[in-house]
Design brief:
There is one protein chain. The chain contains 19 helices and 11 strands. It has a 3-stranded antiparallel sheet. Strands 1-2 form a two-stranded antiparallel ribbon. The protein has 3 domains: 4-88, Hormone receptor fold; 96-335, Rhodopsin 7-helix transmembrane proteins (Rhopdopsin 7-helix transmembrane proteins, Up-down Bundle); 398-505, Costar domain (Arc Repressor Mutant, subunit A). The protein starts with a helix and ends with a strand. The chain is rod-shaped, with a radius of gyration of 36 Å. It is mainly alpha-helical. A hairpin with a 2-residue loop joins strand 4 and strand 5.
Length: 507
């Protein structure tokens, strides 16, 4: 998306490239980093409305002038005294060499961005599996960049092959593309704001993110820019319908468009800081910057001196503006895990597989999404109970570590249960007997897992009792018998290392 300061100046850059427009003896078209001055006859004074932003101060009245000397040379800088104190103006002209480089960076960047944005749009619109609310927001942002890039390239093509002065006489060719560009620029920033709000709510108040509907997003993303631009056009309809269209070419962004953009950038910066703080990841900082438009914060204030700094910021602005669509398409479509999973799945199906090939590496993102019941690519898993991996955690995972600790704990608690029975029961094994009621009250001081441990101990032949299950009150008089001496139990009961069959009887 074009930086507001550069988005209306590319006509001037193209005039600098086309030498056929310059008449011998006339002052050539030039750009002094504030206004674009067209070719002017010698001895004449060029005059334009003051730009919206001069030296970071906003002015809307008065005229800026620049004198063309009889020898066909310009004054070093324009006269902005009617706009701002001339002592504040220290702009240096951008040379034709740098102007040409910037122009071709724009062209190459916009072409690349248009290609990738178009592919991303086709993927988002074609595959229903990825059309969740977050990806729908991404789709609209990508669409804004695609439309903007295409409009810029088409308009640049017209201005290269036709004399801009002739084009400006046709209001539709001159004004409508600029109106569309301004609308798309503002719409893109509004969709960035929607993205920022959604991510902020999803990170901090995930429950409420489910209440965000698409009509709310589209009202902000498409409706507000249309209303603001319509209001601006109605208030300035005379200049919009002017045959010369000078206001659209030579002025910076209108305040009614610029102020919301600056507001959105500042709010998204706050959203980004909160999200990065909560997620505690620098990767989120670099990934979310182009999506939220935070990268434009660096060029909010265009430095006027020294010249090398101004030139560096100008190059940064050109590169960021032309390649932002490319970055958004890569990060939020081609690197989107759900998109990758869907495409991989379809590729395997096209190759003749009914499903993704089995892999022992279950830590990949694709298989995580397939096994995640909340993912749009979730598939009901079919398990083989005879498999060695059945009901067992992934080797080397944190789940396996937790299962190992749990298995060791269960083993020790079974031995502890046998010790409690041995201490309070009457008789000797295998007729060491205690009733379930007294055992329940004794064991309640240590754990609430008595029945589960009794079932586990009976499974390995350590205790025995009547029935499949024991219930408090109902089975208080049923006998629980310890079948082996406690010393023997301590020796033979060990943790097996298998979380499914955690107890091993060593003989």
């Amino acid at each position: 998306m074009s930086n507001p300061e550069f988005s209306t100046h590319y006509n001037c850059l193209m005039q600098l490239l086309n030498a056929s427009w310059s008449t011998e003896g006339h002052c050539p078209s030039t750009f002094d980093a504030v206004l674009c001055w067209p070719e002017t006859e010698p001895g004449m004074m060029a005059s334009f409305d003051c730009p919206v932003a001069v030296d970071t101060k906003i002015y809307t009245e008065g005229k800026a002038t620049r004198y063309c000397h009889p020898n066909g040379t310009w004054d070093k800088v324009g006269n902005y005294s009617a706009c701002v104190d001339s002592s504040d103006i220290t702009y240096e002209m951008i040379s034709p060499f740098h102007a040409e480089i910037m122009y071709w960076i724009y062209v190459v960047g916009y072409i690349l961005s248009l290609i990738f944005c178009t592919l991303a749009l086709l993927i988002f619109l074609h595959y229903k599996q990825v059309q969740i609310i977050l990806n729908i927001i991404h789709t609209n942002i990508v669409a804004c960049f695609a439309i903007h890039n295409m409009t810029w390239l088409l308009y640049a093509l017209f201005t290269i092959h036709f004399d801009i002065r002739e084009i400006e006489e046709i209001v539709l060719i001159c004004a409508l593309p600029m109106l569309l560009l301004k609308y798309i620029i503002l719409a893109a920033f509004c969709w960035m704001f929607v993205e920022g709000v959604f991510l902020f709510v999803n990170v901090l108040f995930s429950f409420y993110s489910q209440r965000i509907q698409f009509w709310m997003c589209s009202t902000v993303g498409w409706g507000i820019p249309g209303f603001l631009l319509l209001l601006n056009t109605c208030l300035r309809y005379k200049k919009v319908l002017s045959a010369e269209c000078t206001d659209w070419h030579h002025a910076s962004m209108d305040k009614i468009i610029l102020v919301p953009i600056l507001f959105i950038i500042m709010i998204n910066i706050l959203f980004l800081l909160v999200i990065v703080y909560v997620l505690r990841g620098l990767r989120a900082l670099f990934v979310l910057c182009p999506l939220l438009g935070v990268n434009y914060a660096i060029v909010l204030v265009q430095p006027t001196s020294p010249q090398w700094l101004s030139l560096m910021v100008s190059y940064y602005s050109v590169i960021v503006s032309s390649l932002q669509g490319l970055l958004v398409a890569i990060f939020f479509c081609f690197k989107n895990k759900e998109v990758e999973s869907t495409l991989n799945k379809l590729i395997w199906i096209r190759l003749g597989f009914s499903k993704l090939p089995h892999s022992t590496s279950t830590t990949t993102e694709e298989f995580k999404l397939i096994r995640n019941p909340f993912s749009s690519t979730y598939e009901i898993q079919k398990f083989d109970k005879a498999s060695k991996d059945y009901a067992r955690p992934t080797p080397g995972s944190k789940t396996e570590k937790r299962a190992s600790k749990a298995g060791d704990y269960v083993t020790r608690e079974v031995v502890f249960l046998c010790e409690i029975i041995s201490q309070h029961a009457e008789g000797t094994p295998p007729n060491c007997v205690i009733k379930f009621g007294p055992l329940f009250y004794i064991y309640a001081h240590y754990s609430d897992k008595l029945v589960g441990m009794l079932l586990r101990a009976r499974k390995y032949g350590l205790v025995d009792f009547e029935g499949e299950m024991l219930y408090q009150k109902q089975d208080d008089n049923k006998e629980v018998r310890l079948l082996k001496p406690i010393d023997e139990i301590r020796k033979i009961v060990q943790y097996s290392g298998d979380p499914v069959n955690c107890i091993a009887i060593v003989k």
